[in-house]
Amino acid sequence: MKLVLASNNRGKLAELQAMLAPLGVELIAQAELGVGEAEEPFHTFVENALAKARFASAHTGLPALADDAGLCVAAFGGLPGVQTAYYATQFGYEKSDTNNVRALLEQMQGIADRRAAMVSTLVAVRSPQDPEPLIAVGRVAGEIAPAPRGSGGFGFDPVMLLPAFGKTFAELPVEVKNAHSHRGLAAQQMLALMRTHWFADTAKK
User: Fold this and answer.
1) How far apart are CA 109 and CA 127, in angstroms?
2) Distance (Å, rounded) from C-alpha 22 to C-alpha 24?
3) What is the tens place of the pLDDT at every residue in 22-67?
4) What domain count does the chain have?
5) 9: confidence class by pLDDT, cuts 50, 70, 90
6) 132: alpha, beta or left, given left = phi > 0 and alpha = psi -120 to 50?
7) Three-state secondary-structure class, residue 197
8) What CATH number does residue 152 fall under?
9) What domain range includes position 179?
10) Residues labelled as active-site residues
11) Contact 97/155 with Cβ under 8 angstroms?
């Protein structure tokens, strides 16, 4: 089954392809099919993920999967949230993972409450008009490290410290990260939802 991924983020594509492999799903990045970026005007992960999935499906005729994920910092009232990818730009930096981490650490100087959560919301639709989108949410709580650690992952992985491991996401082996990350937890839920709602229906026909 071919599924268009409503993202051009190679990190997300690689992670989700590996996680959905048990279903025999082939994920194709929307850019490979000539699809541009959808507008994301909403303030919640689920609304933006749904908008992206519908947009990709409408422009390709394929079922679509979208992920909207971000960092929610307790001291900032849950922000940057859906604006995570562009976090650094509000402080005069160019958009990049490195600048996002730099800006976050600068903004958290002197703040004792380092609690934060990484949240991933996956939405899958069979068509743009699908009345029953599949929705899976993964959330991992941790804290912001005082400095970047590790060389793996992407985004805020170098500063997202997981107390259970005593390491950041960027310090964990790929298979361990995928099993315990916010995207990994959401993908596990999505895998179960697809099995139940999509592939079970197909098998009955």
Assistant:
1) 46
2) 6
3) 888 899 999 999 999 899 999 999 999 999 999 999 999 999 999 9
4) 1
5) confident
6) beta
7) helix
8) 3.90.950.10
9) 2-204
10) 68
11) yes
